[in-house]
Prior knowledge:
The chain is α/β, with parallel strands linked by helices. The protein has helices at about 5-15, 20-25, 30-45, 60-85, 100-115, 170-175, 180-185, 230-235, 245-255, 285-300, and strands at about 50, 55-60, 90-100, 120-125, 140-145, 155-165, 190-195, 205, 215, 220-225, 240-245, 260, 270-275. β3, α5 and β4 (about 120-125) form a beta-alpha-beta unit. Belongs to the LysR transcriptional regulatory family. It holds the Pfam family LysR_substrate.
Amino acid sequence: MDRLQSMRVFQQVVDEGGFAAAARKLDLTPAAVTRLVSDLERHLGVRLLQRTTRRLALTPAGEVYLGRLRSILSDIDEADEVAHAHSREMSGTVRVLALPVVATHIIAPAIAEFQRLYPQIVLELHVHDAVDPNVEDYDLTVLNGLFPVPSSAIVRTIVESQAVLCAAPPYLERFGEPASPEEDLRAHRWLRLRAPGTRLRSMTLIDPTRQDRTLEIEVPVVVHANHTDTLLRATVHGAGISSQPMDLVAPLLKSGHLKRVLAPWITNRLSLIVALPTRKYMPARTRAFLDHLVEHTRHTLSGLGMPEPPTL
Length: 312
């Protein structure tokens, strides 16, 4: 008896709900499937399935055995995948779910270099506002730390970030650069993010160099929107001052398209996270993309006084 094959066939019979369906799935004859399950029961000395003309049901012994069997077969498949990864070129598809702003400013700039390193890996990128992301449907789900994630998911932090105040040089040439939060901010034009169904509150400023001293300031708002990228584009084109995540605007600060104002004041502490399915084994191609994303983010933030992302 091929014990491993019998175990796989038994699991398939239960999953498909019958011998004929399992036979079609496994490309075997129904007689072969029946024989392999019978061989397994004979080897164990216990009946695993109750068979009637109308239904198929697990016996108590079969239910306990199947629970252990799933874990064993999963470990065998994982071991096979690990071994195969050492003998084949990195290839396959990595399915990624990301928020629009994260996909545009974090993932998209990292793709070209990843393609150069791993030309056989295909990235399947799904972009939408995932209020309740179905993490199990993707290899990686990249979100900001404010989004709810299922408790069953494995969550890892890509980078700890901060929200900083920034404006375009032409705007600052026209309106001047604020030097004091208490005195200067009310004289400027503000672009602010507002979630649907909420009202704008006073601006919160935090000074991390002085034990997180906090100020609450009312500022004149000329544009409010529920879309981060819209406010960012308007800021780049000189519409006013806005608060933006440092990991998003780092390239624009380095290029000079934006300038940080009122440093070291920040408006919030943020995190960029990745949520992974509950399965224990992470395919090598998924690990490669995750490592590349972390490294690219680290390089982007270098020189801006930000803490480096943790090692995943």
